[in-house]
Design goal:
The chain has 23 helices and 9 strands. With 604 residues, it is of the alpha+beta class. The chain folds into 3 domains: 391 residues, Na+/H+ antiporter like fold (Up-down Bundle); 78 residues, Alpha-Beta Plaits (2-Layer Sandwich); 114 residues, Uridine Diphospho-n-acetylenolpyruvylglucosamine Reductase, domain 3, CATH 3.30.465.10. This is K(+)/H(+) antiporter NhaP2.
Length: 604
């Protein structure tokens, strides 16, 4: 009998995972958040569906915690240090202050809708205060949304780093809710001490753990297949050890992954592939278990107030928190609105909602069922609209041509190279005779289905596939050689400006044509220096700023990050009459630019 049960449990579990894996195809084609499909599969297989009874909250929290530790380690491991630095300030502000603000605002709504006391209301807010890394990563990366690196990195780093704060608040408030007689002074002291201990030990443990993981992997000579197992075991060991001594194990594994992933580590390509598969498996197991734990027949009793909390979170709490956190940052109103909208709630919130149930909090199932409805509402309302909203707000960058395939290689010794495959497009520089640099000699050219060595291929032709071994830091230099010329379509013109202006001309030259109202002290600055200063010292393609009746837009940056091309267009807020005037001025400015170039040539 026991053997038959083992077979049946294994059969059902493997079947659910297969269905979940296949559902990723449906999610990518329909644009639906994968988490929503996985939760629905769990609900359909559960007590009110196929009849699988699973009501062990402790086991669900244990499985979910281990799965979340694996996901967070991989999130840190896959985050480049450049992306982290680019988005560190806004993302970490959202992950700390943003979580606190969201908790407090949702607590007000929970108190009014459910009549909960102060601690229980804050507990409800803390449970739903964090965004879901899996949903955000899937929608931004797999969904093909191309936008400014800083906006994308802010969303990804925030979703990967705000879980420790939400978990700390939920654990602490659950303990306080189970002890309602604690004095307010003792409560504040407990919160402060707990925060310092958990975050401090989490950060220290993460850095030390990341260094130990690097040391173990780089110094031990093992079979290649054992390195991923060692790294995964070390991550789980670190999570458990830091948690056992009172720190945040979730923060520790994220920091350890961030540290180890941005250092030279042996068999990195193997580690990345293994962790990608392990993370998918962890996500599927966590989502399915949480779906099985829910009982949809209990939802109608609290559906209306739970949906009201979800709508308050989406349209009030999250936007206010994001606006306050990003106010000192150089984000436009449209970018702030997009960051506020892409605050999907997911598996972490449902996992945290188990704590009041197993912690003996009064009406514990109210927290769990309400959170489940909030997550479903968030995924249904926000998950389907991320891509259309980005396009509506004008945040989607025109796609850039780069390698069609990239394979990280670890060659014997210490060589660290990537294998890139480019498809040669018509009118690209390489088809017009531009020579490839010595460090980028192709190893193989495929033309009309036939492979040949680069030396015998002659000039590269449109349609050729070119394979190169190259250092990971050099591909951006090659993208320009294989890319087609910048043909400004209507969409690109709207994003990058109607025409290009010379970035090295002064703001005084610009003011003479457009009367933008430049101060004397800035008139001698070049357009590049003026824009770089106004953008906080860092520019990206797509950055734009209003200057009087026009907008200056960064069209491109060079390898050093310096503005290389600037576009000009009317500001969206400019009246139609001003736009008609500037259409005439465009031609005058072109003539002025040609005259200046001729004059400079004569002087030289």
């Amino acid at each position: 009998m026991l053997i038959d049960q083992i077979y049946m449990i294994t059969l059902v579990g493997a079947g659910l995972i297969i269905v979940s894996a296949i559902s990723s195809l449906l999610a990518s084609r329909l644009g639906a958040p994968l988490l929503l499909l996985l939760l629905c599969i769990g609900l359909l297989a559960g007590e009110d569906g196929m009849g699988i009874l699973f009501d062990n909250g402790g086991a669900a929290y244990f499985i979910g915690s281990l799965a979340l530790a694996v996901i967070l380690f991989d999130s840190g491991f896959g985050t480049s240090i450049n992306s982290f630095k680019l988005a560190a300030m806004p993302a970490l502000t959202l992950a700390t202050l943003g979580v606190l603000l969201t908790t407090g605002l949702v607590a007000l709504a929970a108190h009014w809708l459910f009549g909960l006391d102060a601690i229980e209301s804050l507990l409800m807010g803390a449970i739903v205060s964090s965004t879901d890394a899996a949903a955000v990563f899937f929608l931004l990366r797999v969904g093909g949304v191309t936008m400014r690196d800083r906006v994308r990195s802010t969303l990804e780093v925030e979703s990967g780093s705000n879980d420790p704060m939400a978990i700390f608040l939920t654990l602490t408030l659950t303990s306080l809710a189970a002890m309602p007689d604690m004095a307010s002074g003792s409560m504040a002291t407990a919160l402060l001490i707990g925060f310092i201990r958990q975050m401090g030990l989490g950060l220290i443990g993460g850095f030390v753990g990341g260094m130990l993981i690097l040391t173990i992997v780089n110094r031990l000579t093992l079979e290649r297949g054992l390195y991923p197992i060692i790294v995964l075991a070390c991550a789980i060991f670190l999570f458990s050890l830091v948690g056992a001594i009172g720190g945040s194990g979730f923060l520790a594994v994220y920091v350890a992954g961030l540290y180890a992933g941005n250092r030279h580590v042996r068999a990195k390509a193997t580690l990345v592939r293994f962790q990608e598969g392990t993370t998918w498996l962890a996500q599927m197991i966590m989502f399915l278990v949480l779906g099985l734990l829910a009982t949809p027949s209990q939802f109608p009793a609290i559906a209306l107030p739970a949906i009201a909390i979800a709508l308050f979170l989406i349209f009030v709490a999250r936007p206010i928190a994001v606006w306050l956190c990003l106010l000192p940052q150089s984000f436009s109103g449209r970018e702030t609105a997009f960051v506020a909208w892409v605050g999907l709630r997911g598996a972490v919130s449902i996992l945290l909602a188990i704590l009041p149930v197993i912690g003996g909090v009064h009406n514990g199932m109210l927290f769990f069922n309400t959170t489940f409805i909030v997550v479903l509402t968030s995924l249904l309302l926000q998950g389907w609209t991320v891509n259309p909203l980005a396009r509506w707000l004008g945040l989607v960058l025109p796609p850039k041509i780069g390698p069609i395939e990239k394979v990280e290689l670890e060659l014997p010794g210490t060589a660290n190279h990537e294998l890139l495959a480019y498809r040669v497009v018509p009118d690209s520089p390489v088809t017009r005779g531009s020579r490839l640099p010595r460090w980028a000699r192709p190893s193989l050219v495929i033309r009309d289905g036939k492979s040949m060595r680069y030396q015998y291929a002659g000039r590269l032709q449109p349609g050729d596939y070119v394979y190169l071994f190259i250092s990971p830091r050099l591909p951006p230099l090659l993208d320009r050689l294989f890319a087609s010329p910048a043909i400004v379509s209507q969409d690109d013109a709207e994003f990058f400006g109607e025409f290009s202006i010379e970035p090295d001309k002064t703001m005084g030259d610009l003011d003479a044509i457009y009367a933008v109202g430049i101060e004397e002290k800035t008139a001698s600055l070049s357009i590049v220096d003026y824009m770089t200063d106004r953008l906080g010292g860092h520019a990206e393609a797509g950055d734009r700023m209003a200057v009087g009746p026009i907008e200056l837009i960064v069209r491109d940056c060079d390898e050093a990050g310096r503005i290389a091309a600037v576009g000009l267009s009317c500001a969206p807020e400019t009246p139609r009459v001003v736009k008609l005037k500037t259409d005439v001025m465009h031609r005058l400015f072109r003539q002025f630019a040609r005259f200046s170039a001729t004059r400079d040539g004569e002087k030289s």
